[in-house]
Amino acid sequence: MSDVKESTAISHEKTDEFRTVAADPRPAVPEAKSANLTWSANGKTMDYTVTAGHLDVREDAGALLAQMFSLSYVVTTNGQPDVSRPVTFAFNGGPGSASVPVNFGGIGPVRVETKGVQHVGKPEVKDNPYTLLQQSDLVFLDAPGTGWSTLAEGADPKKIFGIDGDASAFARAIQDWLEKNNRWGSPIYLFGESYGTIRNSQLMRLLGEQGIYVTGVIMLSAIFNWVQTLPGEDLYYLGMMPTYAATAQFFGKAGKDMDEDAWFDAAISFTEDVLAPALLKGDRLSVEEEQQVAEQLSNYIGLPAQLIVAKHLRVDLETFRTKLLETKAQVIGRLDTRFTSDSYHPAQTSSEFLAIEDAALDALDAPWNMALRTFLREKVGYTAPTRYLGSNYLTIGVNWDWNHACAGTEGKVGAPNVSFDIATALRRSPTTKLAILGGRFDAATTYWNVLHDMSTQFLSDDIKQNIEWHRYGCGHMAYVDVPTLIAMYDDLKNFYKKSVQ
């Protein structure tokens, strides 16, 4: 999951909460626990070992910075792992989100059953027919300060809670796992969702610089250029427009009798050919031209042209979420705009409140947490040390250090474009494969922005041949949508086959 896009609605002032995290009073991490289990689905079975425990994050001189909670699944034959098998390190985003959604929601060996765009009550957990464990061993990592991952006593949180420190911590934890499990000969994959794709961008470059070859990188619901989240940035409005159009079509407000993908492509063309030049002109656009573009935009996104003119063609997500189904007294989701909830009381007008209220998250957050706790206790025998911090954004995310010097650029900036890091890593390692996956209904990390960011890196045709693009009819957490989960599994199954040739 992700708290991006709307994070600017929440105060970014530095607080004393970092010191609270640094002086973490929680007890010492429990001893690791393992269990041998069997996965079964579609007439196939696999034996695997699941291990819940912590990995050390140590500085080069050996000082302990953090202990990162990991949940690994390793396929075994006669009780032994195959050390030549691929291993995929997977994580979510935030920053400040743990890895449970991508694990128990999507690619892990067990999965919480979903109900389309309806809320899930008591979780029903089954072996996942579409787990990537069929292609690769899986290691799910929780960022420090999330899940049960903790900072070491006396560790400086500023060394962890930022783009550079976070990537360094994950690189160190990955190497700790490879060393402890004798997996240096395994093909290494990275699977990141949301902010996890920014982390991936750093990791694929950083691991290469540390002498570790990355076979493949999977970017799910990606965001590469943080500039698009800044207030008043036109890239924000441009990226939102195709997602608005897809959402309006889903609710019958636009695009009737058109194929969903054709409609989305038409919205992209309008964004690039009509809306972008109009936004670029600002108030130099005549009143008549603005009205004309507003009427065209209205036909795509289902909001009145008068409202769009009042916004000077710049429709923010909060407006779209609350206005599209206003006559039904409903608010649409952010992570997945197909989800809805009742509108809030007129007194509940706080932008910070509305930014983090999301029916798409409410539908599954608690069931995932309950499934994790039940699985660990009943199947693995792992006793939880404290409450599992599935999301810790208000402690970590709002204090995040966004300053980063993208590869080949001068100096650090607070809104970096990490597509430079991706391109650098691919130029250094032109055999590394990259898969970029996104959904039409994702308003947290919009598909058009990623398409735009990568197109401005001017990669060679040889490198582009190693990049796959997959667009689905889903939201941010693609795996919630079962048809998408199936399609994503088929696409990634082929991706793993191609990457190991």
Walk me through the structure:
By secondary structure, this protein is an alpha/beta fold. It contains 16 helices and 15 strands. The protein has helices at residues 17-22, 100-107, 163-180, 195-209, 234-250, 260-281, 287-301, 305-310, 317-323, 351-356, 359-362, 365-380, 419-428, 447-455, 461-464, 482-499, and strands at 33-41, 44-58, 64-77, 80-81, 87-91, 110-112, 125-127, 137-141, 150-151, 188-194, 216-222, 330-332, 340-342, 433-439, 467-472. Strands 1, 2, 3, 4, 5, 8, 9, 10, 11, 14 and 15 form an 11-stranded mixed sheet that branches. α4 (195-209) runs parallel beside α13 (419-428). The chain starts with 16 loop residues before the first helix and ends with a helix. The relative contact order is 0.16. The model is unreliable at 5-24 (pLDDT under 50).
Descriptors for this entry?
16 helices; eleven-stranded mixed beta sheet; 501 residues; single chain
Write the layout of secondary structure elements.
Blueprint lengths: L16 H6 L10 E9 L2 E15 L5 E14 L2 E2 L5 E5 L8 H8 L2 E3 L12 E3 L9 E5 L8 E2 L11 H18 L7 E7 H15 L6 E7 L11 H17 L9 H22 L5 H15 L3 H6 L6 H7 L6 E3 L7 E3 L8 H6 L2 H4 L2 H16 L38 H10 L4 E7 L7 H9 L5 H4 L2 E6 L9 H18 L2
Parallel strand pairs: 5-8, 5-10, 10-11, 11-14, 14-15
Antiparallel strand pairs: 1-2, 2-3, 3-4, 3-8, 3-9, 6-7, 12-13
Helix pairs in contact: 2-12, 3-4, 4-13, 5-6, 6-7
